[in-house]
Amino acid sequence: MALKKIIVYLRMMRPANIVTSVADILAGIAISGILNSGFSVPWLSILLLAASTACLYGGGIVFNDVFDAELDKIERPERAIPSGLISLQQATIFGTFLLFGGIVFAALNSLTSGILAFLVAVFALLYNKLSKHHSFLGPFNMGLCRGFNLLLGLSIVPEMLYSHYYLAVIPVIYIFSITMTSRGEVHGGQAKNLYVAAFLYALVICAIAYFAYVNGRLLWSLLFLVPFTFMIFRPLLKAIHQPIGKNIGAAVKAGVISLILMDAAWAVTFDALIVAFAIAALLPVSLWLSKLFAVT
């Protein structure tokens, strides 16, 4: 019985998605340049920030189910709360524990990291409670969560936030696109929104390629950007051709998991090739978990 309950809690946290949030942290750490500084690898800081993002993402997803409990009785009755596997109170306590844990882990690294983790938690709650169903604020709010998550990784060297904070705009745009696309996941969507998403995807790819070119790492970045492009556009084009719920869901799933390849491209852009391959190695892990647990 205890094992079954653990599996239910894991299902609520969307493990495949959590892997992508850890990839964000590793990308931020690569951008910080600390791994190329000649000093010893700060393993404790890396572990603390990885644990922080895992808790923050898991907690945010749990609260997504908490605030959607009534709607899920109609649209997704198989989820843990409407199916009765976990009570609303249990889910609320679990989500609170995860968010609080995420902030504590980050704060143990530094005050700056703790503040960024707190912002991720706040915006995750704002999204779930208030902005989710707004056509612009919802996707933008969710994008901010991922943008702050990248900065959380970058905060391993707090001083680097002052010179590289603007890079958070890229994951904001990308997650804005995915969140906007996901609105048609249940009942189908409009091709117009999917065309906008395709344009924003292309903008993100070009932006990363530009930074890679400026840093003299374009060829290496293409090693990750090319499969990234293929992975996100193949299901998206299918959804554009036939914007039904199943196709849109597949496009959203691919968009989320392919974040790992985008993060790998970020890492190699900032001369962290080994980290880039380490991030890319998370892709099969996330794909495997996506077969065991839902992504959306």
TrEMBL record:
How does it sit in the bilayer?
Multi-pass membrane protein
Which superkingdom heads the taxonomic lineage of this protein's source? Bacteria
Instruction: Provide the protein's localization.
Output: Membrane
Transmembrane annotation, as ranges: 12-35, 41-63, 84-105, 111-128, 140-157, 163-182, 194-213, 219-237, 249-268, 274-294
Identify the InterPro entries for this entry: Prenyltransferase_related, UbiA_prenyltransferase, UbiA_sf
> What are the entry keywords?
Cell membrane, Membrane, Transmembrane, Transmembrane helix
The name under which this protein is listed is UbiA-like protein EboC
Native organism? Pedobacter vanadiisoli
